[in-house]
Write a structure and sequence with these properties.
The protein is built from 20 helices and no strands. By secondary structure, the protein is mostly helical. It has a single domain, classed as Growth Hormone, Chain: A (Up-down Bundle), CATH 1.20.1250. α13 packs antiparallel against α20 (420-439). Residues 1-15 have low confidence and may be disordered.
Length: 451
């Protein structure tokens, strides 16, 4: 028996709309970009920050093993000289990512800083120590501002906060992981080398290996990504270009030559300078503070330090999620800065049980690593693309200059008898000042009005 055509079914069958198809392409492109790029970039940043900050872990043994030349003052100046080297290639590094090749620039950075980090194991005098730390900063220069610029080539604004949060997780993540690993390495004594030497050798090697991998795994722009379909590439490039045009319309045309006269750039630079005066002092001196608090062996000290950085990882994640959900960057940043100031002040206030002080330090870690995620979304929100690329370099120069000043001052004060709690109270005041400066930054809202 013949069947009649399914006329009614044909007329009522749902059809995919162009809007639904476009949304599917957008969702697929965003998902692929996140899963393809963020794990690799996170791994790079974990290695970068660990190689920068593991001197604070090595100090616990170096001060005992190298009594002839390694003092608190030498440590402070050496920790700070890294940032002077970093300053030299800061702006060129950001521009090279914007106008040349992130893939090649990042590969160069990784290989050279890995080799120099491993060379730290051979230092046996103050001049060698200072020179190696300076060269390490020179080698790593441009990586972090380059990553910020690189994100503007791949992530639409609504995803950028979460992407930055994933990257910034590398800071406390590297320290949370690096603390117990460093504790194990400090126990080694193979082939006549001391534990602190093995720490630098083992923790510097991954950067060299990753530098080679970057050349094969990291595309410069969406048009270079073979793992995106043509439709996904087109959607991504069209979306990002539309956002660049919108930023130009809201922020105005700010040429690269005029960036240094833009007030927002200097407010951002001053805000991060003040905050990092406290922040880098805390990073490099936290293991020493924990050792003084608990009078424990090096292994216990580094495990406890790692616990503080686990709390910091939670702060990064919460700040990224909340700032993306609300669209607010400025006040999330200020809340983290002021919170770090309050809790660090409480932690350094005397007469409290050690367990209470440790709790305050955990809250300090949560806040102290929550503010950078929203902060680094501010330049691309308030400036044009080329201006933002230069601005990021200028701002990060201020951030790293603070690393030099803060560590050198703390080391010198320690050598002159000023207590570490008193120095860290000063660091808390720097966090508070940074929050006040960021609060003064005018940020355009959705209607283009600056608030």
């Amino acid at each position: 028996m013949a069947c009649s055509p399914p006329t009614e079914y044909t007329l009522t069958r749902p059809m995919s709309s162009p809007t639904a198809a476009a949304e599917a392409v957008a969702a697929s492109a965003r998902r692929k970009v996140a899963w393809r790029l963020l794990p690799l970039l996170l791994a790079l940043y974990v290695v970068a920050y660990l190689d920068r900050a593991n001197l604070g872990f090595a100090k616990l043994q170096m001060k005992e093993a190298e009594k002839g030349w390694f003092t608190d003052e030498v440590f402070g100046w050496g920790a700070g000289l890294f940032f002077i080297g970093y300053l030299v290639l800061e702006i060129p590094g950001a521009l090279l990512v914007e106008r040349w090749s992130a893939r090649k620039w990042f590969a160069r950075i990784l290989v050279t800083w890995g080799v120099i980090s491993m060379a730290m194991a051979a230092v046996d005098s103050v001049p060698q120590f200072y020179l190696t730390r300076f060269l390490l900063g020179l080698a790593e220069a441009g990586f972090y501002p380059g990553v910020i610029v690189y994100f503007t080539h791949w992530f639409p604004k609504r995803d950028r906060g979460r992407a930055m949060a994933a990257m910034i997780l590398g800071v406390p993540g590297s320290l949370a992981l690096g603390a117990p690993v460093s504790a194990l390495l400090l126990k080694l004594g193979w082939f006549g080398l001391k534990g602190w030497q093995w720490l630098f050798l083992v923790e510097g090697a991954p950067a060299v290996a990753l530098g080679v991998l970057v050349l094969f795994l990291l595309p410069d722009r969406p048009r270079d990504a073979r793992w995106l379909t043509p439709a996904e590439r087109d959607w991504l490039e069209t979306t990002l270009e539309a956002e660049r045009r919108e930023t130009r319309a809201v922020a105005g045309e700010v040429s690269v030559g005029r960036v240094l006269r833009h007030p927002v750039v200097w407010l951002l630079a001053a805000g991060i300078f003040a905050t990092n005066l406290g922040g880098y002092s805390l990073v490099f001196w936290l293991p020493t503070a924990v050792k003084g608090l608990f009078a424990a062996d090096d292994t216990t000290v580094l495990v406890l330090t790692g616990v503080i950085y686990l709390a910091a990882m939670a702060g990064v994640w919460l700040a990224g999620q909340s700032s993306d959900r609300t669209g607010d960057r400025k006040w999330h940043c200020v809340a983290g800065q002021v919170g770090a100031a309050v809790f660090l002040t409480l932690a350094m206030t005397g007469g409290q049980p050690a367990v209470v002080v440790f709790g305050w330090l955990m809250l300090t870690g949560l806040c102290a690593h929550g503010w950078p995620t929203p902060f680094w979304a501010l330049p691309s929100t308030t400036l044009t693309a080329s201006a933002a690329a230069v601005a990021v370099g200028v701002i990060n120069m201020a951030a790293n200059l603070a690393g030099f000043v803060g560590n050198a001052v703390v080391g010198s004060l320690q050598e002159r008898g000023v207590s570490l709690p008193a120095c860290l109270m000063g660091a808390a005041a720097c966090y508070a000042l940074g929050g006040l400066l960021v609060a003064a930054i005018p940020v355009p809202n959705a209607a283009g009005v600056k608030a």
